[in-house]
Design a protein that fits this description.
heterodimer; A: 209 residues; alpha/beta; Rossmann fold; 7-stranded mixed beta sheet; 4-stranded mixed beta sheet; 23% helix; B: 8-stranded parallel beta barrel; 12 strands
């Protein structure tokens, strides 16, 4: 029996994204969640979720506006605390993005964010894609499983070894998830990926970091 | 391979799921939540939720229905009808939508699209084109097919794409609800120019119709209502309270088992015919 039910979850609300859907997933797992839309001391949480659709510039601007950027950075340095970035939230964990200009990210994971190419594939990449080449226990059940994606940009981690799955886009391998110690990045939407998304979140909650 | 998205489309009026023919002649089918749950269980790739009178009357009380309807539904929800400002988009994303679908407000003012994309990103913004064919020419319409404009759907599509639309749902008002097949010419013409996902809507009466539109054009998904709703009624005990308003004739006289076209069967049919689907 897992003891994740007692975990304290904080969900950052940048007012850009489908915040209701994210909360719903955690409520479905009977977890108590707090929505963070102002400066908050994050140390009381066990898992902080940085979700997001929306643009990089807006996302970062809002993080700074509510003074949460440096708080997230210091939170992530606490070894036993988990930080989960979803979609734009995952991209903001990197150093920088080229979305509508050049913008600095949180710099928690070395790497950058670039626009998807549209030679043979459509952009935005919207729809269900199969995860390939899954690594690490956390993702091992999800090889060749479909998850829901909705994005025009993607993260490129500098350290390839942290990548835990990829999808194919324009004949290229695009990083769809990574695990860097206590920091989890997911490009797809677990809250919109039927029951496999729910299972994945459960695994992240169960994992000892 | 990228799987084709099969998207049940729920058209809502006063909180009820309804079904029209050529966007008019509405009949009541019941409580939308029951249908959404049914489609989620059967493996729908997404749900599209449209308030058909919101734009006309300039109101949208859809958000409270969405919140009730999408509880424990873990697939994307696109909401449309009467969205005309950034605040409305924010409200819907807060109430359970993952994407919004906009038509009339963008036809009136294209810069609204640009603003929305800048804030929420392309992938959150679905533009809807309601195409009407009149004397062999295509026109863009608004207010759920009530007002015809002088815009041509192909040119309009290119403009929406240039202005950052994330995906575009193209409805053929002439085919809608008749179940005689999609307007293949329309989708072929438009999808030639596409760099973004297109969803085809209007006219599916059987599995072959769905197959034909996927094969003949470069679309990413199909939006279905009649084809799925009538079958779903077999599984749904209508909790709809009978009210004096609205057309209940269809629902009262509905014969179970007459319709037998469910989502799972459709996806299996497509897969047998070498179309990539998520099963």
């Amino acid at each position: 029996m897992s003891d994740y039910k007692n975990l304290k979850i904080g969900i950052v609300n940048l007012k850009l994204n489908n915040i209701f859907s994210i909360c719903q997933l955690f409520k479905y797992l009977n977890l108590k969640i707090s929505i963070i839309d102002n400066y908050t001391n994050l140390k009381k949480f066990d898992l902080v979720v940085l979700p997001g659709d929306g643009t990089y510039k807006e996302g970062m601007k809002r993080l700074f506006k509510i003074n949460l950027a440096s708080e997230i950075i210091s939170y992530s340095k606490i070894k036993e605390k988990k930080l989960l970035g979803i979609c734009l939230g995952m991209q903001m964990l990197f150093d920088s993005s080229s979305e509508f200009g050049f913008y600095k990210g949180l710099g928690l994971v070395p790497g950058k964010v670039d626009k998807l190419s549209n030679k043979n594939s459509l952009v935005p990449n919207i729809g269900w894609r199969e995860l390939n080449g899954v690594k690490k226990k956390l993702f091992s059940n999800f090889n060749k499983k479909f998850f829901y994606f909705s994005h025009s940009f993607y993260g490129i981690p500098k350290e390839k070894k942290i990548i835990t799955s990829y999808i194919c886009h324009d004949d290229k391998k695009i990083c769809s998830s990574f695990v860097d110690n206590n920091i989890f990045g997911i490009q797809f939407h677990p809250e919109k990926s039927h029951m496999d998304g729910v299972k994945l979140i459960k695994k992240i909650l169960d994992l000892k970091v | 391979m990228v799987p084709i998205r099969i998207i049940p489309r729920l058209e809502i009026k006063n909180g009820f799921l309804i079904k029209g023919i050529n966007f008019e002649g509405l009949r009541i089918l019941g409580d939308p939540s029951a249908f959404v749950k049914c489609y989620f269980d059967k493996g729908a790739d997404e749900i599209s939720y449209i308030d058909v009178v919101a734009s006309l009357y300039g109101t949208n009380n859809l958000s409270k229905f969405i919140t009730e309807t999408v509880k424990n539904i873990f697939i994307p929800i696109t909401v449309g009808g009467g969205i005309r400002d950034i605040k409305a988009i924010e409200k819907f994303l807060y109430s359970g939508a993952d994407k919004v679908s906009i038509n009339s407000a963008i036809v009136k003012n294209l810069s609204f699209l640009k603003k929305a994309v800048k804030r929420f990103g392309s992938s959150t913004i679905n533009c809807s084109i309601e195409s009407i064919k009149f004397e062999n020419k295509y026109y863009v319409s608004t207010e759920n097919g009530r007002n015809m404009t002088s815009l041509n759907p192909v040119d309009w599509f290119k403009r929406l794409q240039d202005f950052g639309a994330g995906e575009i749902t193209i409805s053929s008002i002439n085919s809608e609800g008749l179940q005689n097949g999609f307007d293949l010419e329309l989708y072929e013409k438009i999808s030639k120019f596409t760099k973004i996902p297109i969803i085809a809507h209007g006219g599916a009466g059987n599995f072959k119709h769905v197959y034909d539109v996927i094969r003949s054009s470069n679309i990413s998904g199909v939006s279905l209502s009649s084809l799925l709703h009538y079958d779903a009624l077999n599984f749904i005990k209508s909790k709809t309270k009978q009210k004096k308003i609205g057309n209940y004739f269809f629902l009262k006289n509905f014969q179970k088992k007459k319709f037998n076209n469910n989502l799972v069967k459709l996806k299996k049919f497509l897969k047998r015919n070498k179309i990539c689907v998520r099963l």
